[in-house]
Amino acid sequence: MEILDSYATTVAKNVIVAALYVTINYINGTLVHTFFKHEIFTENPRYILFIHMVLNDMIQLTMARYIAVCKPLHHTQICTVRRTYIFIGLIWVFCAISILPDLFILLATEPLYYFLSTIICSRDLVFRHRYLIEKKNISHLVYLSFVWLTLFYTYFRIMFAAKATGADARKARNTILLHGLQLVLCMFTFIVPLFESLLLSLFPLLKNDIRFTIYVFVQILPRFISPVVYGLRDQMFRKYLETHFLYMAHKKNETAQFQPC
Predict the structure, then answer these.
(1) 16-25, Cβ contacts within 8 angstroms, sequence gap of 24 or more
(2) Could you state a single Gene Ontology molecular function term (predicted)?
(3) For a tag site, which of 21, 118, 185, 216 has the least CB within 10 Å?
(4) Which residues, at least 6 apart from 31, have a Cβ–Cβ distance to it below 8 Å?
(5) Mind giving me the DSSP string for 233-252?
(6) Is residue 242 domain-resident?
């Protein structure tokens, strides 16, 4: 039997999610606005990767930070704007390759009435063919292994560099560690079904609360860390953000002063 939340609980959960999303989108929107407004950011591969990460991927910035710290003499030759856009294009190609076959198989195997029916918005319920489920598990395992190996390698190399050099490398190490925390939260996506099933078997009456909590920690919280790691902690970004907010506050005060009584 489906257990429904009370009206007050439903409203509270929706308010929490809406407030979190408004906050995240405001911060990210301000960072994107700052990026496109100042040419100094659009010509720097690091900031190009950051803006792309706001929308899509994480591992690129870790690689860029690794090159900057561990191979500083080759950084300008390796991390060019052109190569950055090529790398971003490859990321999108790999993402498309992983999902487009699923759509074609879905269209070829499911009857017409399936697309007119109402189902729960869950990947395993939408792409229910056994081959697609196995493909998803294998592709997730491959991507997960590649990302983890890459990040572990860069983490340890940056940590070793931080011990041998000064504050800049230590700051890069702290940035990578924060990035790793974000990655761990994102990786929970791969174990959510198992973890959720375990919790539901232990606390069946708290099904809705368990799913809501997992949704907040797995889907929303990691997106709070991105602007902090590579946006608000960055001196250049922080400088232009402070200028932007001071200008907006000054403009608001001028508007208020000239309003007729």
Answers:
(1) 16/216, 17/215, 17/216, 17/220, 20/216, 20/220, 20/224, 21/220, 23/224, 24/220, 24/223, 24/224, 24/227
(2) G protein-coupled receptor activity
(3) 118
(4) 50, 51, 54, 227, 231, 237, 241
(5) T-HHHHHHHHHHHHHHHHHH
(6) no
Give the residue carrying structure tokens 């940056």.
Answer: 158
Q: Does residue 258 have a pLDDT over 60?
A: no
Tell me the pTM: 0.60
| Alpha carbon distance 101, 107 (integer Å) | 10
**Which residues touch 226 (CB under 8 Å, ≥6 apart)?**
28, 53, 54, 58, 182
Q: How many domains does the chain have?
A: 1
Q: Which residue has the tokens 């999108």?
A: 92
Tokens of 19: 């407030």
CB atoms within 10 A of CB 225: 17
Residue 153 tokens read as 């390698």
**Tokens 């190490």 sit at which residue?**
173
Q: Is there a domain that residue 258 lies in?
A: no
Phi, psi at 236, each rounded to 5°:
-65, -45
Q: Which domain holds residue 189?
A: 7-237
Distance CA 160, CA 141 (A): 28
| Backbone Cα Rg of the chain | 22
The CATH number that applies at residue 159 is 1.20.1070.10
Q: What is the C-alpha to C-alpha distance for residues 189 and 143, in angstroms, rounded to an integer?
A: 13
- Flag the least confident range among 70-84, 119-133, 179-193: 179-193
Structure tokens at 73: 């003499």
**For range 74-99, the mean pLDDT:** 78
Q: Is residue 113 part of a domain?
A: yes
Let me know: does 178 contact 229? Beta carbons within 8 Å: yes
DSSP state of 35: H
- Domain-located, residue 248: no
